[in-house]
Amino acid sequence: MPDRTDHGNPGNSHTPGTPGNLPPEIRSFVGRHAELARLQAALDPAAGPARTVSVVGVGGVGKTRLALRAAAEVQGAYPDGVWLAELSPLHTAGLVDLAVMETLRLADQSTRPVIDVITEWAHGKRLLIVLDSCEHLLADCARLAAALLSRLPGLRVLVTSRERLALPGEEVLHLEPLPVDGRPGDPTRSGAGDAVALFAERAAAAGRPLRDDDPAARATATAVCRRLDGIPLALELAAARLTDLTLDQLHTRLGERLPSPLDLLTSDTDERPPRHQTLRTAIGWSHELCAPLERLLWARLSVFSGGFCLEAVRQVCAGGPLPPERIAGLLDRLVAQSIVLPDPVISARYRMLDTVREYGADWLHALGEERAVRRRHRDHYARLAREGCAEWNTGRQVAWCERVLTDHANLRTAVDCALAEPDGAPATAVEMAGHVGFLWRHCGYLREAQHCLDQALAAESPPGPGRTLALWSRGAVAILQGDQEAAANWAVRCADAAREQGSPVAQVAAAYLRGGHLALTGRQAEAIDVLDAAPRLPVQDDGFGAAQLQARLALSLAHVLRGEFERGREVADEVRTASRKQGEYWCGAFADYLIAQADLARGDIRAAVSGARTSIAGHALLHNTVGAAMSLDLLAAAVVTAGDAHRAARLLGIGTRLWELTGRAQMDSPDLIATRRTCELRVRERLGDDAYTTGYRAGLAMTYDEGIAYAAITQ
């Protein structure tokens, strides 16, 4: 998947350059000293045989917080990273493997089983994978964990769930609520009073500090914590209410038997565990204290996956008694009450805890609005994807790439909704899959693009631009995956659709699929014939405009692979000029690569080195791992030609690491593979095997960001 910047870890002990993706800890960590020590010991690679450790407990008890703190504390024992896979946004079975692969930043371009891709990359590595919120995907999580652990001796898996995975040798930590009785720091009882300590800290944040010299207030706080069973989420929600209520008022309201949403959503025979019922009642009490429109917004927000911004909330949640102009103020109120949380990494973005979101989803269902709001969510992200495709071949390309990465979970949910309920019109699902699949293909989510496009195109749908774009996107995915047989099949179907549609631009796009397939399978002369025959039309700003530029890139590549470097350079220069005119980077970075290839062939080493670096920078801007890997191979060849074999060896190691992330080295192109091998042989001859191996391994050990930064250094 596209590489993302490491964000540190909950314990604030992150070392720059350390692999992993643990998020920063926003709020202080209170109590749990014994549980944390036990979990750290269980995660110590030298501690014992248990390689699956599960933190199990009711919703809201603090499983994720504890797991992330423990993972941060043991990070140094896992030199290949601690990786958090957040599974709560997944709504469809069968996506756990893919989510873990994306978490590990493996931008695999192949059609191999995901388990094989992960295993190949992780072989010989020592890493910890955190599977967070597994309860709704237990079977898939258990299957994946068992398969990976059987193949990877250096792997440990930390799980948070309401139920254990039930794997052999699994060590389970049953997490209980925070203890209430006693004073914080009481040495006679481990953790005594931690619930009150947490409540007091959050009360202070709400502007209602508890004074140690006020025993009545502390007794009231203890009673509140006991009423809420010491469940951390319930305590946090209650403390947030102190912005509106005094502590005594809070205690009184908690003692009242308010009508709970739990009564509306469950029967008298509800079999939830008592503490789960306590949490639901506590959330229901907080819900009751919300104003009617705040409750309605809470319910409607439950359709979002991963996170959301204010504009998306306006588009999806407004309607009926909830006017758009009230959304911002109501959202601020939910943030003030800790119902909605600010995103810890991305400003002006929000999220909800799983348990709070589930409660809202129950209410949405009870209100009879679930289907309508989910459709609004689907339609909003369908519009978003359509706009992204319409502006992809423009100066907004980088911004759209970042938007696709940020809203990936919501796009996935919207596509699932469109595929499951296409309103009786397959064209709706095909059009959405075409737009989303196009964006995913260009932003590194090839497997998800393949998955949604295959599902959408399996059903008959009427011809039109949406269907043609879906066919083109599917073929373009196959090309980058190195699945040339599939690419040839989709090329034929796309060409037929383009002719049926009567669109010359779509026919140029179809020519890219056919010509690109031929070029990458060593049939350059045929590729040149196909691509030269495509009409030259004004370049559009949309997805088909991007395909127009890619058709010219395929022509340039065919000439370069055939040894016709000057002609290849001419065509690539045309693409670069058009790319700059459009303001886009994706095709422009590939054009820089092809021009640098031609410069190297004609002996202009300085230009080749500069062009390869420029290409790498452009690809990195769009998280294009394949493009960056291709350009690193070229930079290594240029650098060794310039006489710096030591640097070339390290660049080859960096390139190999990036190709590992893609899953298929050199896209299985025999010509690109041969060129890379020639470069390796030259470097070995210059350095000798030992020096080559040292430099190569140094590059291979670098992270993605370190490798890209090293390639940018001018020497």
Compose a concise summary of this entry.
The chain is mainly alpha-helical and 715 residues long.
SSE inventory with pairings:
Elements: H1 33-43, E1 52-56, H2 63-73, E2 82-86, H3 96-103, H4 114-122, E3 127-132, H5 138-151, E4 155-161, E5 171-174, H6 194-205, H7 215-227, H8 232-240, H9 247-255, H10 261-265, H11 274-289, H12 292-301, E6 308-309, H13 310-317, H14 327-336, E7 341-342, E8 349-351, H15 354-366, H16 370-390, H17 397-406, H18 408-420, H19 426-443, H20 446-457, H21 465-481, H22 484-501, H23 504-520, H24 524-533, H25 543-561, H26 565-582, H27 586-601, H28 605-621, H29 625-641, H30 645-662, H31 670-687, H32 689-700, H33 704-712
Parallel strand pairs: 1-4, 1-5, 2-3, 3-4
Antiparallel strand pairs: 6-8, 7-8
Helix pairs in contact: 1-2, 3-4, 6-7, 6-8, 7-9, 8-11, 12-14, 12-15, 13-16, 16-18, 16-19, 18-19, 18-20, 19-20, 19-21, 20-21, 21-22, 21-23, 22-23, 23-24, 23-25, 24-25, 25-26, 25-27, 26-27, 27-28, 27-29, 28-29, 29-30, 29-31, 30-31, 30-32, 30-33, 31-32
Descriptive terms for the model:
5 domains; 715 residues; mainly alpha; 3-stranded antiparallel sheet; Rossmann fold; disordered N terminus
Unreliable spans are 1-16, 183-190, 257-273
Count of folded domains: 5
CATH topology of the largest domain: Serine Threonine Protein Phosphatase 5, Tetratricopeptide repeat
Number of helices: 33
CATH architecture of the largest domain: Alpha Horseshoe
CA radius of gyration is 28 Å
- Strand-residue proportion: under 5%
Residue-averaged pLDDT: 86
* CATH class descriptor name of the largest domain: Mainly Alpha
CATH homologous superfamily caption of the largest domain: Tetratricopeptide repeat domain
In whole angstroms, how far apart are the ends?
30 Å
Number of strands: 8
User: Helical residue percent?
Assistant: 55-70%
Which word captures the global form?
Answer: globular
Biggest sheet: strands, sense, closure? 5 strands, parallel
Instruction: Order the strands across the largest sheet as they lie in space.
Output: 2-3-4-1-5
